[in-house]
Inverse folding.
């Protein structure tokens, strides 16, 4: 056991109410829209923000009332937050000193960590003399130098350009693999989360709405944000045997809807588009206007409005053959057997 937290915080309009458990060695990615409470949660765990109520326990020890420097927590911020008047060496040594180490011991520890992140030759440089990637590696070294049991990473790659992001991600991944405590990563990049995390936690409006493995969250999204994140169409309605009532006279025919409130997932690749009404087997078919076309590699995501708005994914050749352009009317077709249904 590494982290057990029950956190309630009020920050302006945000009411954060979260229960969280992380195991030793577990890498968890925290996802959610802007303003959901992700950074607030991390800063509260680190002791940088006060709680209205709740508790934080790390390795069984209650750290709720401890100040940041007394918690076994390391944090890497998006914008580094290095002390501008200190060298890279002294920035890394600062946290070690704050936890009671002698100056010589702290500097020796800092020298080792700077070497480990490939910055031994930049020890005397101040933050303004470092590149963005170098500064973030110094910030990582500073967080790890205090031997934390909980490592918090607040979008550590977001401020970096694409090339630097790849380089720093490799350094980050190497060090995270060797870290035996719990790790909590805030990111807006789903690919980054999917590649690095053992588990995803999705937070919206200060509450956890979904938690599970990448496969579990992708297969059964429980909010519009999650559906957009994993790239699928999500509908919510009432199951009525062989169809789902979406309200407003709209319905989806499915293989088995059961009864009660349900979610329905339609993968964009399961959606067919035609320029004319057609005779075929799909039980779901309706017209709608093409609202947008987004080219993504060898596929094109076509957003269709109308009675039941959704996104289809087709090939560039299909776009050309069907003469798909914004404003054109198309007929949507989805087989009932291609719709995944699960309880809401």
């Amino acid at each position: 056991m590494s982290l057990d937290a029950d956190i309630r915080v009020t920050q302006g309009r945000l009411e954060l109410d979260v229960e969280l458990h992380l195991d030793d060695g577990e890498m968890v990615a925290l996802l959610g829209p802007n303003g959901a409470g992700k950074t607030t949660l991390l800063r509260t765990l680190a002791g940088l923000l006060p709680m209205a109520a709740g508790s934080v326990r790390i390795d069984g020890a209650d750290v709720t009332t401890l100040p940041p420097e007394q918690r076994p927590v390391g944090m890497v911020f998006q914008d580094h937050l290095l002390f501008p008047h200190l060298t890279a060496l002294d920035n890394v040594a600062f946290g070690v000193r704050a936890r009671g180490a002698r100056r010589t011991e702290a500097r020796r520890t800092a020298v080792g960590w700077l070497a480990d992140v490939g910055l031994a030759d930049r020890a005397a440089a101040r933050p303004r003399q470092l590149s963005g990637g170098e500064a973030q590696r110094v910030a990582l070294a500073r967080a790890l130098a205090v031997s934390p049991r909980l490592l918090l990473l607040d979008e550590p790659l977001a401020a970096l350009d694409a090339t630097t992001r790849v380089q720093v991600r490799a350094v980050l991944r190497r060090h995270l693999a060797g870290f035996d405590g719990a790790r909590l990563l805030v990111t807006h990049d789903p690919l980054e989360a999917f590649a690095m995390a053992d588990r995803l936690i999705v937070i919206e409006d200060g509450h956890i709405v979904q938690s599970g493995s990448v496969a579990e969250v992708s297969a059964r999204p429980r909010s519009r944000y999650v559906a957009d994140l994993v790239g699928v169409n999500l509908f919510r309605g009432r199951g009525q045997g062989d169809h789902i009532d979406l309200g407003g006279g709209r319905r989806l025919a499915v293989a088995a809807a059961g009864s009660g409130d349900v979610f329905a997932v339609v993968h964009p690749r399961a959606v067919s588009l035609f320029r004319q009404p057609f005779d075929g087997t799909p039980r779901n078919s309706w017209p709608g206007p093409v609202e947008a076309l987004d080219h993504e590699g060898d596929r094109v995501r076509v957003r269709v409005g109308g009675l039941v708005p959704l996104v289809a994914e087709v090939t560039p050749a299909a776009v050309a053959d069907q003469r798909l352009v914004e404003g054109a009317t198309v007929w949507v077709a989805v087989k009932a057997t291609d719709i995944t249904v699960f309880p809401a």
Notes: The radius of gyration is 25 Å.
